[in-house]
Amino acid sequence: MKLKAIFLDIDDTLYSTSEFAEMARHNSIKALVKLGVKMSEEKLERELNEVIEEFSSNHDGHYDKLLLRIPPVRWQGLNPAVLVAGAVVAYHDTKFRHLKPYEDVVEALKILSHNDIILGVITAGLTVKQAEKLVRLNILQYIQQNAIFISDQIGVNKPNEKLYLRALNDLNLAPQETMYIGDNPLADIDPPNNIGMITVHNRRSGKHSEITGKTKANYEIHNFFDLLDILNDDFGIKTHRQ
Question: Taking the complete model, does pTM exceed 0.70, yes or no?
């Protein structure tokens, strides 16, 4: 059966989320120290990482929680609103400068966009944050906007199979006509496998690279050039690189 659609995860699939997050958090901590917080960057960063682990990366008040966790004497006489704003600005400034896709991702999407195939996204996270990533990664010219499915926007989160089924139903696609590419076996491989999609485990980087799921992906890649070879050899999709 002809492959009609390829859906992509975002984080640690299109760009190195783990590396970027580490850099952005480190820069936010440096900003706090520069603003006058009397605590080492190492200790502050450990506390921030605990906050993120305990309240999730999607929590909106990481730096408010951080200030609650450290002794007030460490920032006595400083305005907490200014401290939080300084940390947030440093984090977002890092976004402006460093949030970029893997180079091979851009080249692969450009090649695939010239084929008769739907390119879409199925991602978990907050609507605005995930949409912002797609804009900042500058890849929307290759993605069909009616094929973007964000868990917060849909009301169904990974690993619920209904998120993947929603994408298929909305685009009138059969599972066996579609491929999903992601880095987390438990959230990105097992669910689409269970409904019959073709799955690709991206083992390039990130915190999920060594996790084992309950099922095995149909394919495994370490970059998007590997993906192009698979699409050319097994699906007859023209992916010749210049």
Answer: yes
